[in-house]
Amino acid sequence: MYSFNYQKTKSVADAAAALGKNADAKLLAGGQSLIAAMKLRLAQPAQLIDLGDVAELRGIKVDGGSVTIGAMTRHAEVAASAEVKKAIPALAALAGMIGDRMVRNMGTIGGSVAHNDPAADYPAAVLGLGATVITNKRKIAADDFFKGMFETALQAGEIITAVSFPAPKRAAYTKFKNPASRYAMVGVFVAETAGGPRVAVTGAGPGVFRVPEMEKALAGKFAPESVASIAVKSSGLNTDIHASAEYRAHLITVMAKRAVAAALT
Predict the structure, then answer these.
(1) Which residues of 28-50 are buried (b: 16+ CB within 10 A; e: fewer)?
(2) Is residue 192 classed as helix, strand or coil in its secondary structure?
(3) How far apart are CA 229 and CA 222, in angstroms?
(4) What is the pLDDT of residues 6-51, one digit of tens each?
(5) What residues contact 216, with CB distance under 8 A and at least 6 apart?
(6) Among residues 85, 61, 77, which one has the least CA distance to residue 69?
């Protein structure tokens, strides 16, 4: 680790002001990704702006068919929330699959979504449910938010304040876990929404993405057999020591089929 300035803030406005004064500053949410990157010197911010005491960024609200989760709400809180379990059971289940207990009790939804790790779970839920990312400046539709590996539509000085999820008719998330990290080697979130079926994949490529062919098939019949024969091309998918691109392509179909089956139970 190297030297850096550390600042705690009490409000979103204060955090935005501090962020605007230093182009090399980084927001500290749960810190489960940022601190690890700093230890490896993959990130070297000159200043950390801690959002931990910003009360307005925490909490879960269910209203009018949607679930809005404050950016600093911990994964464990989402997983344990009776309101989330009732409105969107798949979202609570996904939160309960993230990392281990330490990660779930420290990591936040805002931090995960802003970081946009290619193997993170929350981006699959955000894209799969057609959620809206709310910032201190605007609202961003899920389809416009994720731009690529560790890249989002967030602009300089922009802070995620909450994520709003519309409650689907049914949904489910399944993933093939890395046995050590529990990151998704491939995770698939399937939802039957008011606008039609959505299928979002994480862990397989450089970022979360939808599978239009599966969505079209599920629009005709929402059943596991509708996606069972749909093969996703391996070109552009990740290859590493854990799995080849071809194997990940195979897993997308397997996980999608399981997710649809789970959504129907």
Answers:
(1) bbbbbbbeebbeeeeeebebbbb
(2) strand
(3) 14
(4) 999 999 999 999 999 988 999 999 998 899 889 988 889 999 999 9
(5) none
(6) 61
Q: Which long-range contacts (CB under 8 A, 24 or more apart) does 212-219 make?
A: 214/256, 218/190, 218/192, 218/260
At 142-193, the pLDDT tens digits run 999 999 999 999 999 999 999 999 999 999 999 999 988 889 999 999 999 9
CATH number at residue 27: 3.30.465.10
Q: State the residue range of the domain holding 219.
A: 170-263
Number of independent structural domains in the chain: 2
Q: What are phi and psi of 246, to 5 degrees?
A: -65, -40
Q: The tokens of 150 are what?
A: 């560790």
The whole-model pTM stands at 0.95
- Torsion angle of alpha carbons 255, 114, 105, 40, nearest 10°? 100
The Cα–Cα gap between 46 and 4 comes to 5
Instruction: Pick the last residue of a domain from 148, 166, 184.
Output: 166
